[in-house]
Amino acid sequence: MPSDKLFPLDVKMSSTALINKPKSKRILELDALRAISCLNLLLFHFTYVYANKYGFETPLGFAFPYGKYGVQLFFMLSGFVNAMTFVGKRSAKDFLFARAIRIFPSYWLVILINVFLLSHLPLFDVPSTDATVANLTTMPRLFGFENIEPVTWTLQVEMLFYAMLVIMMLAGAFENMLKNLMFMVGTCFVFCFIGSGFKATFPDSGLNQFFWVVENVCFMRNMPLFAMGMLLNEIKNKRGVVWKNIAGIILAGMVFHAIDQRGHNPAATALLFGLLTACAWGKVPPLRFKPLLFISTISYTLYLFHNNIGSICIYSLEKLGMGSLLAVTFVTVLSIGLGTATTIWFEQPITKFLRNWWKQRRNKLETTSPTPIGAEAIK
Q1: Helical ranges in 150-298 per DSSP H
Q2: What is the residue-wise DSSP string for 16-52?
Q3: What percent of the chain is predicted at pLDDT more than 70?
Q4: CB 213 within 8 A of CB 160
Q5: Phi, then psi, of 218 in degrees rounded to 5
Q6: pTM, 2 dp
Q7: Which residues are CB-contacts of 345 (< 8 A; sequence separation ≥ 6)?
């Protein structure tokens, strides 16, 4: 999954730098949460999803059906982290460019690899050209196509969240974060309630498509989770009235469960948010576990590459006579290795190159721009 993100998120430090700089202002527990979310999804897809979608040759003996909670944690984490790095610190152009160079190179690579593999290997249908092009946007569902790599549906939500942040910044909505987020959360509740009621009453009406498009473009079913993370950042940075922000978090959580369609447990939401809160204040030292911090550095590529490729590998290994548990274990290690290689030899070099290019371009524009009349006096 796309915050640096697993799914999608922050421009990443190398694993060595991340682990060996204890005095950095970076909150290591938040990186660990990203790793936990990613490993949660990997375990979910390699056990529960694979068993139900394809079936193991021999019983695996266990399943981990809690993938939706890894996504839930990630969206709350993304709300907190992106608010922390964006509000009052970046221009819209810098923010969007940082997100683009973080997300698109590895994402396009995995889509093209999937298209090649799905055209030559079992388990999957060959994607059409239109489906491939739609997938390259990160938002194929808005164009009527399924995700070639199913896990990347969360990336569509994440990209729309970034767009929301930019719109809020341009509109000055960060000046009254609580009020504006509560307006948006309330809109999500009313719109989803009306949309669900209309669909139940008029299942064949063409207006249902309108409700579906607006709901998905505005990621209404998940927006309250991002709002919870953003309001936690308000508390962390001592903006606004604490008890009002807490009330806003509780209200956003209630709205999320009122419009939720995936059966999330409210107790799990409270526990996950409590964990996020403790990590935001750096109060969970056991999570500064070096292997977790390393997984965090490769979490995005691991998130992108594990599902389809991993499923093909499990299927092939079982056909060769390998036991299901051994196959899952082997493919888990293989996925981590693939994520590591892609991060070190593909993602990080491209990100570094593009970041330097952007910095040089921005500096050049700043030095060549004419100085406004009176600017010297202002200085």
Answers
A1: 153-170, 177-201, 207-217, 223-236, 242-259, 266-280, 290-297
A2: HHHHS-TTSSS-HHHHHHHHHHHHHHHHHIIIIIHHH
A3: 89
A4: no
A5: -95, 10
A6: 0.89
A7: none
